[in-house]
Amino acid sequence: MEPPTGIRWSAALRSCFPILSWLPRYNLTCVKMDVIAGVTVGLTTVPQALAYAAVAGLPVQYGLYSAFMGCFVYCIFGTSKDITLGPTAIMSLLCSGYIGGDPVFAVVLTLLCGVIQAGMALLRLGFLLDFISYPVIKGFTCAAAVTIGFGQVKNILGLKEIPQQFFLQVYYTFHKIPEARVGDVILGLCCLFFLIMMTLMKNTLGSAEDEAPSLVRSARGLVWSIATIRNALVVVAAAAVAYSSEVTGHHFFSLTGKTAKGLPPFKAPPLSEIVANGTVITFSEIAKDLGGGLAVIPLMGVLESIAIAKAFGSQNNYRIDANQELFAIGLTNIMGSFVSAYPVTGSFGRTAVNSQTGVRTPAGGIVTGVIVLLSLAFLMPLFFFIPKASLAAVIICAVSPMMDFRVPVQLWRVKRLDLVPFMVTFLVSFWEVQYGIVGGVAVSALMLLYIMARPKVKVSDHGVAVLELDSGLNFPVTEHLSRLVYTHALHASPPRCLVLDCSHVSSIDFTVVHELNELLKQFQLTGLSLIFTGLKPSVLKVLLAADLPVFRHTDGVDEALQLLNGIHYDQQF
Fold first, then answer.
1. 334 pLDDT band (50/70/90 cuts)?
2. What is the DSSP letter of 3?
3. Backbone phi, then psi, for 469, in 5-degree steps?
4. How many Å apart are CA 265 and CA 243, to the nearest integer?
5. What is the four-CA torsion angle of 101, 107, 112, 115, rounded to 10 degrees?
6. What is the CATH code of the structural domain delimited by 457-572?
7. Please, what is the Cα angle at 73 between 309 and 120, to 5 degrees?
8. Residue 244: is its pLDDT beyond 60?
9. CB neighbourhood size of 80 (10 A)
10. What is the pLDDT of residues 76-110, one digit of tens each?
11. pTM
């Protein structure tokens, strides 16, 4: 019996607007926990957004422009209580290779990414992400972490005019070490030391025991709070030191410099650009220049976000809707293009902070978004004095957990062949990150095709040859199957009959059927028999429709052997 129309409409609305599922149950306890989590994540978001904008090659204010829209959109359309959308290290690195430091290109890329992602959601194309394997993802993230982390060494050392290409960057960074600025080095190392110590302290705190003395619990809570907002503390302290230096007339540090004041205007994204010499770059030219970025960036953005949402959903016992998540990310990027954002995705680090602080609903993101907007409205002039070395330290510590080199050890222990796509992705990513992803996916696809083309076949001899197939019969396997049949039956010495055990075969296509037709003719010409066993109804239907010559089949191998032995006996007498 179908549910009433009203119930169906209600379920459809909750599916499209997940906020309707949790808003009726929202209470004061949820408000308190969401505010605490939102403030904590907000204090983490602001310094990270400033730092990631530098990774993308954009002025630092663009990091904040990109950090608030997702907070509000995801609250309405998202299905995970934990995830936070915004600029991330990986997305910033990917974007830097396509936008060339041009804000107009960044905004157009955001708009097109959003349209592609939302279109994928409406067409239910989330399954495409299944073609990017775990070794490819880990190879990419490890390489990206190394690339991003080393890319900030120049800011720790206060070096200038260092190329973006990784290998050139490594060479010129070491080549120019004698030009390092002492002030930047000291400040950067101090920031790194503080961040590492706070991270270690937080990781060794353990869980708060209810029976512990109140003073111990309070001290643990204080250390946890300081460690959680460590990025904000480092940036504020470094800015204060730099400001003190500047007002006394000493220029010890490389500063962020001038930033645009106030909130970004809400306006339609620019679809063309006039460059310095007066030439107009049209929308089609911008899209052409973005090229492969229109495939790589939307897919990686969705992959990163959905992987994080699934991980925290599993950890906190709730399920997410992958296509709804895809739509939420796409709409965030579309709306973000109206406030000069560059492409965003889910942030693992900030999502972890959100979950650990006890967020109850996506409404915690509203608080985070308000903090980012307040920073844009009132603090932009102060960002001038933020030292680049402090932002570099924040980035290095943020990406260091991504350098998980336990993965190749695990791959070696579990399945060594999976090291191939991991290593291809990892190594090629140092040349160009997007090529690393494409290379890894291509190698994974070739490995998958090889498995399809060369399935395992168990061969046994019962007076007649028996071939037991372990997978579907699709066109890549045609030549391999034919070669096995000729080797073990038609060209054997002496030639013998054949039983094809298809009990594990769930699919078959026309190319294989055509080859089976030719094989049956060869068996007929040589006076031998070919019998199929264990055919599933769907496969049997295809073979019957093909009208194969002398087509015989049985339910099991034993029955086929008895039939063949009977034929052999009749031929003798």
1. very high
2. P
3. -90, 145
4. 29
5. 150
6. 3.30.750.24
7. 65
8. yes
9. 29
10. 999 888 898 999 988 998 898 899 889 999 999 99
11. 0.76
Would strands 498-501 and 345-346 be described as parallel, antiparallel, or unpaired?
unpaired
One-letter amino acid of 489: A
Report residue 572's pLDDT band, with 50, 70 and 90 as the boundaries: very low
- pLDDT (tens digit, 9 = 90+) per residue, 519-560? 999 998 988 889 999 999 989 999 999 888 888 999 888 888
pLDDT band (50, 70, 90) for residue 573: very low
pLDDT band at 273 (very low <50, low <70, confident <90, very high): confident
Tokens 């490819």: give the residue. Answer: 136
Buried b (16+ CB within 10 A) or exposed e, 487-506: ebbbeeeeebbbbbbbeebe
Residue 246's alpha-carbon distances to 160, 301, 386, 390, in angstroms, are 20, 40, 11, 16
**Spatial contact of 92 and 304, defined as CB atoms under 8 Å apart:** no
In sequence order, which residues have a C-beta less than 8 Å from that of residue 16 and are 6 or more positions away?
Answer: 77, 324
The DSSP code for 456 is -
Q: Which residue, 340, 350, 344, is CA-closest to 328?
A: 344
Residues facing residue 466 across a β-bridge: 460, 499
pLDDT, one tens digit per residue, over 479-513 is 988 999 999 888 888 888 999 999 888 888 899 89
Residue 156 identity: I
Give the residue among 96, 114, 93 at the shortest CA–CA distance from 105: 96
Structure tokens at 335: 């709306």
Please give the angle made by the CA atoms of 277, 282 and 283, to the nearest 5 degrees: 140
The domain limits of the chain are: 32-402, 406-453, 457-572
Q: DSSP H helical segments within 176-213, as ranges? A: 182-203
Structure tokens at 435: 């090529």
Distance CA 547, CA 510 (A): 12
Residue type, 362: P
